[in-house]
Amino acid sequence: MTSISKVRGEVHRDVQRLLALVERRSPQTATEVEIALWAGMLRVGASMMTLFFAHQTARWPSGLLYEVAGVAHEVDGADVVKIGTKFGKVSVHQPMGRAVGQGRGRRDVPMSRALGLSGGFTLPLVTLVAKFCALMAFSPTRQTLRDLLGWAPAPRSVLRMVDAVGAEARGFLQQVAVPEGDTDVLLITVDGKGAPTISSAEHAKRSQPHRKGTGGLRQKKSGAPKKRRGPGKKSKNAKMAAVGVICTLKLDESGSPRPVNKRMYATFKSYRALFVWLKAEAVRRGYGTTKFKKVQFVADGADTLWALQQEFFPDAEVCLDWVHAVEKLWSCGKAINRGSRTKRQPLEVWVHEQKRRLRHGKLNEVLATLHTALDGTAVTGPGNKFRRKVLDATINHFTKNRARMRYQRLRQQGLVISSGLIEGTVRHLVGMRLDGPGMRWGKARAEAVLHLRCVLLNGLWSAFESYLARRDSLRLAPQPVPTVTHDAK
User: Fold this and answer.
1) Residue 200 near residue 154, CB atoms below 8 Å
2) Does the reported pTM lie above 0.85?
C-alpha cells in the first residue's frame, strides 16, 4: 500500500524544485523557464492526484462491507492499476470487492465507481479528449494531447471515449435549457451534407489479415487493376447528414434580419428523424403558443424537405432559398446566351434583370421570359436538347414553388429569403470535421461525433461537462463500437 506520508513528501519535493527553478539567479530565458515550469507543474499535478487516490484507497480497507444494487459486497484486497488523468498516468492501489459468500464471483471496483472514474480515466480527461476529437481528427488529437499534457491515451481508448461521450450528447441537447432573449419571429431552416462512409466491401477488405510474401503494392495493382467507375458512380460513398437550425430573427440598425439564439441539430438517421427533433425543440422554445407572431421555414428545392415541412410546420411562412433560385437563373442564362464563356456581359445583364424581377415579386415576368426562350429554341440543333431541358426544368421548378418565392413580401415582413445561415452551419458542422480527405466513417461513430459538434458549436460544452459530472453514469465500453457500414445507392 502506498504510504501517504511518502507521497506527500514527493509533492513537497516537486514544489520545491519549481520554486528553485523560478528563483534561480543563473541566466535563463523565459522560454526555458516556461517549458520546464509546465513539465514541472504536470509532475506536481500527478503527485497530487497520487496523494488524492492514496487517501481514497484508505477509505476502503480489506473486510469493509458495502452494498451494490442491494447486494452485500466485501473488500477483499487491492490491485495496482494505472489511472489516466490530465497530468499523466498515476499508479493507484484499487480496492477490489466481491459479493459476500461468492469467493470466485465477479470482482467489483467500489472506489472507481464512487469517484466517477470511467474505464481507468478521470472524467475531465475523457471530456477533453472528446472535445478535441470533435474539433479535429483522431490522430492530430493524440499529437495535441502529447504536446499539451506530455502523454496521450491509446488510439482504441480515444475511440472508446468518443463513443461514450458522444452517446450522451443528444440526451443533453434534448434537456438543456432553452436560450433566453428570443424575439417573436421563429426561423427554422434545414439542409444536408454527405460524409464519406466505409462501404461493406471496403470494410471486408480491411478486416482481412495481412499476408506476408504476397508482393508489393505495385504487383498487387498490376494483378488486380482497380475498376473504373461508371457514369454517376461516386467514390465518396456518402451518407447524408440532415442538419437543422432553429433561431429567432431580430432587425439590425440597417433593417436586415439577423439570427438570435441560434441552435443547430443534426443526425445521420434521416430527414424525418431530424424534423421530429426540430419539432420537439421548437415546441420547447414556444412553437404553438402565442410567443411567436411569425414562424418561417427556409430550404432549397428538395421535395422531401417541403413534404416534411407541411407535416411538421404547416403554418410556417415558407421560402425557397434565394441562392438556390438564382443558381437556376444562371443555368438558364447560360442556355439562352450562347457563347457566354467569352462574352460574359450579356449573360450578367440577363441574370441581373431576372433577379431584379424576382426580388420585386414579378415571378410571372420571369416565367414569361423563360417560356419565350424555350419556344424560341429549336428542338433540333447543336446543344438545343440540353438547353430546352434546362429551361423546361426551371419553368416547372419555379411554377411548383410559386408560393415559396414571394421574396418581396417576405423582405417587407422582416424575414429572410436565403438559407445562408444553414449553408454556413452545414459547412462548419459537417464539412470541416466529417468530410476530410481520406476519411471513411462508420455510421455509429459519425453520429457520435456529429452530436458532439452540435454541443460544441452551440456553445454548450461547459454545461455538457457539468451534465456528465452530475449524472455519474458515463461508462467506457471495453471495446470501441463496432463499425457500421453504409453502401450508398
Assistant:
1) no
2) yes
d(CA 276, CA 325): 27
**CA 469 to CA 117: how far, in whole Å?**
10
Is 14 in contact with 43 (CB distance < 8 Å)?
Answer: yes
Helices marked H in 360-442 — which ranges? 363-375, 384-400, 407-412, 420-426, 432-434
The average confidence (pLDDT) of the chain is 91
Burial class of residue 88, CB neighbours in 10 A (0-12, 13-18, 19+): middle
Q: Which range has the top average pLDDT, 106-115, 193-202, 272-281, 344-353?
A: 272-281
The Cα 150–Cα 143 span in angstroms is 10
Helix (H) or strand (E) holding 334: helix 322-336
Contacts of 374-382 spanning 24+ positions with Cβ under 8 A? 377/335
Q: Residue 94 — left, alpha, or beta (φ > 0 → left; ψ -120 to 50 → alpha)? A: beta
Asked whether residue 216 carries a pLDDT value surpassing 70, the answer given is: no
Contacts of 173 (CB under 8 A, 6+ apart): 265, 451, 454, 455, 458, 460
Task: Take residue 438 and report the three cell numbers written for it.
Answer: 481520406
Give yes or no for a contact between 263 and 215, defined as CB atoms under 8 angstroms apart.
no
Q: Provide the grid cell at 217.
A: 503494392
Side chain identity at residue 418, one-letter code: S
127 Cβ contact partners less than 8 Å away, ≥ 6 residues apart? 165, 464, 465, 468
Sign of CA dihedral 446, 448, 453, 458: positive
Q: Give CA angle at 449 (448, 452), nearest 5°.
A: 90
Question: CA-CA distances (angstroms) from residue 140 to 110, 146, 168?
Answer: 35, 10, 23
Strands (E), 29-144: 65-68, 71-85, 88-99
